[in-house]
């Protein structure tokens, strides 16, 4: 027998010996070496999962694996086969065990896990910004506001380096980058869900550009910081820091610009250099601004210049509109009136546009250029042209802007005429006028600056200097070249035409679509009245035709749920088994409905007290087990014909101090379990209905039970959750026993995969995962009476008459919950059950509601897509037909 057949540890595959690789026996009977047991993850305090059978077993603390018994038989066998350990095996220092995950597709993914993981840290809290005013600008505008004082709990949701930047009471500017239709409906999406759905509705290119802007703002010092994304009243905003002082407030003599005398020269040069540094920062991130209006340059309290992304985005959108209107109105009104309107718009916005960018914008807006119009690619040289215009406007003032506006308007008319000629002559004439203005302002003392600025205005982008060269030219006015050590340093080099132009990108398209969508929401009610005729959508031959009323009703979340009536008191439990839905109530009865058409089938009336819980047992003979608050247990046969009497009645030992059964669950090991008012958990045999075991340890009523992965979880009014091994019903550990603060009763439990959800009387929800403290949130305003978990979807309901829908994400060691939305109900929610795309809600007003949550979320999500293509398969249609 060779060494490979020696007994070995299932984790590190090292042959057992009497030293470090000593086999220790776990409670399940399997063995692993002592070192590996010390490094295995501990899902819950004082427990670990067996690497062989994945069963959760007790782990001695604080002694560790040395307190477990040695497997003497394995050691003896190993010594007989080979006295020495095989040296070819290497010990794994940090062993891990991969446990297969259970996946369920209860509902479609509203967004991908990758999308959520990338963008979740950029979502600002709902109350992070206070809106102050809205500045209109045609179809585009900025919202101005302030940040509020963020406490630690809110700041934890921000990205680490963003959190260090944002503080309370800071001025911010906001620009719309997306919209979400908040039509009234059954499902009220949560704040984060609205942000994610808005991002899902954006094109990939739009999201990519948004990511470029966010990352660039954090890495470059001359760019205003972008704090993240904020949602309010149907719109998603990009939140950017704002400095109230800009160029327009700084210029006391705006009409004539600055005169670069001895006193003013250093100030103009410093401002120009900082502007160049901001543009270099953009280029180093692969971004081309396209437009650099004077309003996008802001000054902080120390007079330093920053470039605002929001102003760039807004002005870029306005530029596209101005260019399109300039051509569209020239055929309708007098050319002089058109020119006056055009110049007023550009003058008001202080926007400059290079010739090659102008032609691209006109082409993008669907305006045909003349056949002889020569076009150049938009690249980093386009920003050099804009930069020169900004610097000249500081030196010359309003005369330069007027001349430039007149030239741009003439260039548009010349480039869009039938021949498309004469624009070169226009350019040369304009450049001659600008040269004369510079000579008048600068004189002969600053010839180098004048020549460099004129070279930046060259019609051909390839002949323009780099931004860094403009920066060096201005620096030489202050520091002589012989003393300038910057020449010896490596300069930033970017590849021409390799950048991404924001004006020509898809983010501007998003801004345009956002404003159109906002207008559609304002007139949405009138459109609904026009479509009330119920006509079929004609579409194209072969396309699927969908009833328009049905589609619009579903897309707005206005779904009619099914009301199941029959009980005469508060609903206490729900269960699904076979083809039936079972419900229990304080009226001492168990009712049965068909899952095919939700018609009432039968009523079981055998309890003498209020029925508190029920469970379905999927055996050869399907059973329903129900328990009442008097300690009575009734076992019913599920199948036609239904009997009037239970096939078996069981009774707990009565104790006048405590009240009956409060919880029920069943396992696949042949037992069902009851949680009782006498503070115990009892295991009953399904085979012969005898009491097999009584588990004690809780200090109050056992109010909730759950079974998952070989573990029985019991929750109690004492605020703790106890874990029991299903194989021998031995105790494993206690959760919440060391939790500081006041004890709050546990009312409901849900367990799936390796996540445990605990609902408390005070509205707090705890989600337990591996090796982490519970993720605790205040989910409801009042007691949480019921929890249901299906795969990654979590539903909770209680005293506040609201069903909260959350999505669980992450791995077993780091579980994160995202509020998807909420569903308002008419009464207190006392029972929840999720099943095959349907959410079944039991209420205190005796009613059971069946919500088609799958269709509701799926159609709402389709409505967010840009193409708005309806795809309905046969399964979906069958669900719709039942409504």
UniProtKB/TrEMBL annotation:
It holds the Pfam family WD40. The keyword Zinc applies. It comes from the Eukaryota. InterPro entries: Kinase-like_dom_sf (IPR011009), Prot_kinase_dom (IPR000719), WD40/YVTN_repeat-like_dom_sf (IPR015943), WD40_repeat_dom_sf (IPR036322), WD40_rpt (IPR001680), WDR86-like (IPR044715), Znf-RING_euk (IPR027370), Znf_RING (IPR001841). Gene3D superfamilies: Transferase(Phosphotransferase) domain 1, YVTN repeat-like/Quinoprotein amine dehydrogenase, Zinc/RING finger domain, C3HC4 (zinc finger). Keywords: Metal-binding, WD repeat, Zinc, Zinc-finger. This is Uncharacterized protein. The keyword Zinc-finger applies. It comes from Escallonia herrerae. Signal peptide: none annotated. Residues 9-54 form the RING-type domain. The lineage of its organism: Eukaryota, Viridiplantae, Streptophyta, Embryophyta, Tracheophyta. One of its GO terms (molecular function) is zinc ion binding. SMART domains: RING, S_TKc, WD40. WD repeats lie at residues 564-603, 695-734. PROSITE patterns: PROTEIN_KINASE_DOM, WD_REPEATS_2, WD_REPEATS_REGION, ZF_RING_2. Residues 129-478 form the Protein kinase domain.
């Amino acid at each position: 027998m060779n060494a490979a057949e020696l007994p070995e540890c299932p984790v590190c595959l090292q042959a057992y010996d009497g030293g470090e690789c000593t086999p220790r026996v776990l409670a399940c009977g399997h063995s692993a070496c002592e070192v590996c047991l010390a490094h295995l993850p501990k899902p819950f305090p004082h427990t670990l999962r067996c690497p062989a059978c994945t069963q959760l077993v007790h782990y001695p603390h604080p002694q560790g694996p040395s307190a477990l018994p040695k497997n003497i038989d394995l050691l003896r066998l190993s010594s007989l086969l080979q006295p020495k350990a095989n040296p070819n095996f290497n010990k794994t220092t940090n062993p891990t065990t991969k446990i297969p995950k259970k996946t369920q597709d209860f509902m479609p993914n509203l967004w991908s896990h990758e999308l959520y993981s990338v963008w979740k840290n950029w979502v600002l809290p709902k109350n992070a910004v206070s809106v102050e005013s809205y500045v209109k600008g045609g179809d585009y505008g900025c919202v101005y506001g302030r940040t509020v004082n963020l406490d630690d709990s809110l700041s934890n949701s921000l990205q680490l380096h963003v959190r260090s930047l944002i503080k309370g009471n800071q001025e911010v500017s906001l620009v719309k980058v997306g919209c979400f239709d908040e039509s009234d409906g059954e499902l009220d999406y949560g704040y984060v869900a609205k942000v994610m759905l808005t991002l899902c509705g954006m094109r990939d290119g739009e999201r990519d550009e948004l990511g470029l802007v966010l990352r660039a703002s954090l890495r470059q010092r001359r760019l205003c910081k972008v704090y993240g994304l904020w949602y309010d009243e149907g719109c998603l905003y990009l939140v950017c820091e704002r400095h109230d002082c800009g160029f327009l407030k700084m210029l006391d003599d705006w009409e004539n610009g600055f005169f670069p005398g001895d006193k003013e020269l250093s100030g103009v040069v410093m401002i120009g250099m900082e502007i160049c540094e901001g543009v270099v920062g953009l280029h180093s991130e692969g971004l081309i601004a396209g437009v650099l209006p004077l309003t996008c340059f802001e000054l902080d309290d120390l007079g330093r210049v920053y470039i605002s992304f929001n102003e760039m985005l807004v002005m870029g959108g306005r530029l596209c509109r101005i260019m399109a209107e300039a051509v569209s109105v020239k055929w309708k009104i007098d050319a002089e009136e058109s020119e006056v309107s055009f110049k007023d718009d550009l003058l008001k916005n202080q926007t400059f546009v290079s010739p090659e960018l102008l032609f691209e914008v006109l082409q993008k807006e669907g305006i045909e250029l003349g056949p002889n119009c020569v076009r150049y690619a938009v690249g980093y040289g386009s920003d050099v042209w804009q930069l020169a215009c900004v610097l000249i406007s500081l030196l010359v003032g309003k005369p330069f802007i007027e001349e430039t506006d007149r030239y741009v308007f003439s260039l548009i008319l010349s480039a869009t005429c039938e021949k498309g000629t004469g624009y070169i002559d226009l350019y040369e004439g304009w450049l001659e006028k600008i040269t004369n203005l510079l000579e008048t302002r600068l004189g002969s003392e600053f010839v180098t600056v004048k020549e460099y600025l004129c070279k930046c205005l060259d019609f051909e982008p390839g002949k323009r200097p780099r931004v860094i060269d403009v920066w060096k030219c201005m620096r030489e006015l202050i520091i002589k070249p012989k003393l300038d050590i910057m020449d010896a340093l490596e300069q930033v080099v970017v590849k021409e035409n390799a950048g991404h132009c924001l004006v020509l990108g898809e983010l501007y398209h998003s801004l345009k679509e956002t404003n159109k969508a906002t207008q559609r929401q304002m007139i949405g009610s009138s459109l609904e009245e026009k479509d009330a005729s119920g006509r079929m959508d004609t579409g194209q031959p072969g396309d699927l035709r969908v009833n328009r009323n049905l589609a619009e009703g579903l897309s707005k979340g206005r779904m009619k749920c099914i009301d199941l009536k029959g009980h005469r008191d508060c609903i206490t439990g729900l269960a699904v088994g076979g083809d039936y839905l079972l419900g229990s109530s304080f009226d001492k009865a168990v009712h049965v409905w068909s899952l095919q058409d939700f018609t009432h089938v039968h009523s079981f009336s055998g309890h003498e007290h209020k029925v508190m819980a029920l469970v379905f047992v999927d055996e050869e003979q399907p059973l329903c087990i129900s328990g009442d608050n008097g300690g009575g247990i009734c076992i019913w046969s599920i199948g036609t014909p239904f009997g009037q009497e239970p096939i078996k009645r069981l009774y707990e030992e009565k104790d006048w101090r405590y009240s009956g059964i409060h919880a029920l669950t069943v396992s696949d090991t042949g037992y069902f379990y009851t949680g009782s008012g006498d503070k115990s958990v009892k295991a009953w045999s399904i085979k012969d209905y005898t009491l097999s075991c009584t588990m004690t340890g809780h200090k109050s009523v056992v109010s909730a039970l759950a079974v998952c992965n070989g573990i029985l979880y019991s929750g109690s009014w004492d605020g703790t959750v106890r874990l029991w091994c299903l194989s021998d019903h031995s105790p494993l550990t206690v959760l919440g026993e060391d939790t500081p603060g006041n004890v709050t009763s546990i009312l409901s439990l849900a367990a799936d995969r390796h996540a445990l959800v605990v609902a408390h009387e005070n509205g707090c929800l705890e989600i337990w995962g591996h090796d982490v403290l519970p993720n605790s949130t205040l989910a409801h305003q009042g007691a949480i009476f019921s929890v249901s978990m299906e795969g990654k979807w979590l539903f909770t309901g209680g005293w506040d008459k609201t069903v909260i829908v959350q999505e669980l994400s992450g791995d077993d060691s780091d579980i994160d919950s995202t509020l998807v939305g909420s569903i308002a109900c008419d009464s207190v929610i006392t029972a929840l059950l999720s099943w095959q795309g349907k959410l079944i809600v039991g209420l205190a007003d005796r009613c059971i509601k069946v919500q088609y949550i799958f269709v509701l979320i799926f159609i709402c999500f389709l409505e967010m897509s840009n193409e708005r293509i309806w795809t309905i398969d046969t399964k979906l249609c069958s669900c719709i037909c039942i409504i």
